[in-house]
């Protein structure tokens, strides 16, 4: 017979917290005697002296009847483990059990050996999350064939994806599904005919070419190689062809979402082309196309130069050449600034806006170059062009025209270089023009359509994102997409708040300060960062309300975030306490919106979404509390309940969001709520040897996690620190991480000498571990021997230059890692010098600089910065 060890839950907990649902095959009636005697002896229900006699009398009553079967998935035929099976007659419930790993169940159980009678007629019910409950009525004992197939419940169709074409790949993103046990996603690609030049996605019907292609895993197998995140890179597109994408979700019960109901990405992505474009700019009496760069003075008109995707671009330089309408724009007093996407290259930014031989246009020239190739890691605005406008009649419009080299000739249009070695190559670009109009259109930033841009609009963006209020019927998402990245989200809420406060939306600080304010820092700084967002653990009893923290480490530039946590809901799961979200101290005063609910397809799937934004980055790289959330444990909860962080996006005060392959895209850790009866107390192992700590940890039902060594305050070989800390309540089997002391740490110093003197005079400096830049020969103190110090060097702008005098180029040494010794450490480095002509062969940025920047310098017009 099949014996279910968890039929009597309270008994099981008292005899050792056996795993719910575990079953074992036991042959013969004597096994029942053994199991019942063991349970009875431990619980005290039967004394050892009487256990044998009473058990034998129970076996004597049994007539050998049984009901056995297997529960499978109706779609896949696979067995389903953990299904709760209840046995009853028309008058009363008799017995219950759960299926094993092979989907098997059996009655009677060990605790109720008389629940069936030969020839008796019974009704069986089957229930488990993710599946529609099933019943078998009129089952006659005995039988081995009481089998049933359960139908998986529906799964939410994924939201509309965004497909961004880069020069080598198409990057696809989509909103996360709100199911906590979702198995993953499939990505489908459909080639389509060339779309209209200005695609109206609300009315666009694509013309398919061929059949859709499943990109991940085996074709035709929806369960093969599922994608567990919400991003995918398609590097198999063909250059110049157009594609749309759809996303399919696979539920925890293996139910695929209906692909025909999934929205497709729009506009179509053009394979292997970097899209650069001007948006349509409608200038009204207010709105975020108007900026007071100088408080109290007349505002500038902001004209963004945008990109749909720069994730593929590791560029040594780019040039933007365009024509702006001279009938509307005054060329005097312009300002051009890099954005969060291009800020890391801003040290070599040269710009100009000047009269053209064509009196109807002004020539816009932007050259952005770097001595080392920079990964842009973003989408949206590349540059912001701020201009003054002339007094013209309302509804006057003029074109914003990007110059195509294929039409105007080499070197005379938009150009982007990659980081190919030895010679940087030109990236293929797709250009799209816009218009500049006085009046008309939608008011940029006026989300609620009341004719005014204010804090209500910033708050409404958050509420729309969490689905607290519906999106407006018109002008959305353009009215809220301030950074032009394709989303109207909390990053745009931050930009509206900065506009209201008269603050810049472009990184303007020196590079060494960007690490605290912007995710758009230099490549070396990006690689050193390791952001982590973690949902915490809470312990409680059924019916109790618990508080769960969400923390973040290593993301000082964060000015806000959006996240969704999914969890099992209902009487056996959790209920989110609406309105309980409380921001941590580092985000005090930030705007917040929250919403929660259950999925329409399955009420056992709960979710809570939080959106937060503020006008400035919070500035702390150490671990901070983002927010705390409260959940009420269901009255019938019997096991630990996961809190799955299905999505998290953070952004800086300039509206830049690290996504896809950006090193500052955060890692995510899920949390859980554990019942007190199941929780384990972490022992105190500080001061123990590794062997002693391991013994204590394993005795508590936990495991040793990561073990690291380093200098400490305790004698060598002893545990200096543990996480979680002693006394913390955790789930059984959780890991305890240990830091083993190597003994007290000796202090040391580091001196860096830079040569030649001409480079030092030009501003050559160094810094250690990302701190402030220092002068040559300066000694850094307070360092620990045995640690690795990362030294990098300030990149210098070219000096001089023009049509006849090539610029002097100083190339900084590559970043280096130095393992510090107890003795004073001295490092000698050299900057190398070359001229603009010589440098053209060593970097595409200087080739670009020679082509564009020299012309700008020769014109006598430099950027107003």
Give the key terms:
Immunoglobulin-like, 6-stranded mixed β-sheet, 12% helix, globular, 865 residues, 5 domains, 7-stranded mixed β-sheet, mainly beta, 54 strands
Write a brief caption for the model.
The protein has 865 residues and is mostly beta strands. 12% of the residues lie in helices and 37% in strands.
Explain this structure:
The protein is mostly beta strands and 865 residues long. The protein has 5 domains: 2-150, Sandwich (Immunoglobulin-like); 162-272, Immunoglobulins (Immunoglobulin-like), CATH 2.60.40; 279-441, Immunoglobulin-like; 529-675, Sandwich (Immunoglobulin-like), CATH 2.60.40.680; 682-730 and 734-865, no CATH class. Helix content is 12%, strand content 37%. It has 12 helices and 54 strands. The strands form 14 sheets. Strands 18, 21, 23, 24, 26, 27 and 29 form a 7-stranded mixed sheet that branches. Strands 17, 19, 20, 22, 25 and 28 form a 6-stranded mixed sheet that branches. Strand 19 (290-291) and strand 20 (300-307) form a beta hairpin. The longest helix has 15 residues, at 29-43. It is globular, with a radius of gyration of 33 Å.
